[in-house]
Amino acid sequence: MKIGAHISAAGGVANAPLNAQLFGCECYQFFSHSPKGGKAEPLSVNEIKEFKERNKKYNFKNFYIHAPYYINLASAKNNIYYGSISVLREELERGSMLGVKYLMTHLGSAKELGRKDALKKVVQGIEKILTGYNGKTKFLIEMSAGAGEIIGDTFEEIYSIIHNTKPIIQKKIGVCFDTAHAFESGYDLRTATSVKKVLNNFDKTIGLKKLKLIHINDSKTALGARVDRHEHLGLGKIGLDGFQALVNEPRLKNIDFILETPTDKGVRKDIKLLKQLRKQV
């Protein structure tokens, strides 16, 4: 288990490992280009080289890309739908050039089509993204908080999406579990007992072999609130007992934890806190 955070890559991807070591990260996550939109600038040979050299210098072996926030694989608008497919495939290719382990993405909203048709479209979109792709960077579905009609807020729905793709595609899909999103969707993570129950449920429904990465965030909103608001560890509604249990959970010992808590000085404190909790294992 390595501990890290979402790190700024402003000014170029080669700045991500530099910033990550300043925060005390052992692994890290970043945007490969602006998450708000616009065409991604091609990665230059020198930029890729510098990125890899800095990772080697600071001993980073695991690093991850988060897809832009505007992705919607359930959109009724073709420009958004096919644009999302194109961006995600491009992000996988960029990740492969950089040696990134995983790309995680939110799936989008069912608001325009209704749940049934939206889920079909998501499955078709994932198949389009991954058909013919054999790069190093693996594709992860990130669990959502369930706000509005956002897709992927239950284990059952994520399982359905994965297993409605072709078998050859299923093998290329993993899951990123977000503690705040799960809690906000109704999965209690406040005690050791509840953490074990949730992981047992995940294993029974999706299978823990599909769990590849954890976003470790406290929640400003209550259990089942379906409102996505991250908080620093121990200051939200999940509380430190839950995070102690997660770090102590033997089934998670080889899965990296990435913080996405508010981007202020508290992130460094969160990293130190997680490392302390891990020492108590």
Automatic annotation (TrEMBL):
Catalytic activity reported: Endonucleolytic cleavage to 5'-phosphooligonucleotide end-products
Residue ranges occupied by any Xylose isomerase-like TIM barrel domain in the UniProt entry: 22-276
UniProt entry keywords in alphabetical sequence: DNA damage, DNA repair, Endonuclease, Hydrolase, Metal-binding, Nuclease, Zinc
Pfam families registered for this protein in UniProt: AP_endonuc_2
Cofactor: binding comment: Binds 3 Zn(2+) ions.
Residues reported in the UniProt entry to bind Zn(2+) 3: 181, 228, 230
Residues the record lists as binding Zn(2+) 2: 142, 178, 215, 260
Listed CDD domains: AP2Ec (cd00019)
Membrane-spanning segments: none
SMART domains: AP2Ec
EC top class named in words: hydrolase
InterPro entries associated with the record: AP_endonuc_2 (IPR001719), AP_endonuc_F2_Zn_BS (IPR018246), Xyl_isomerase-like_sf (IPR036237), Xyl_isomerase-like_TIM-brl (IPR013022)
GO biological process: base-excision repair
EC number: 3.1.21.2
Cofactor names: Zn(2+)
Family: Belongs to the AP endonuclease 2 family.
UniProt name for this protein: Probable endonuclease 4
Species: Candidatus Kuenenbacteria bacterium CG10_big_fil_rev_8_21_14_0_10_36_11
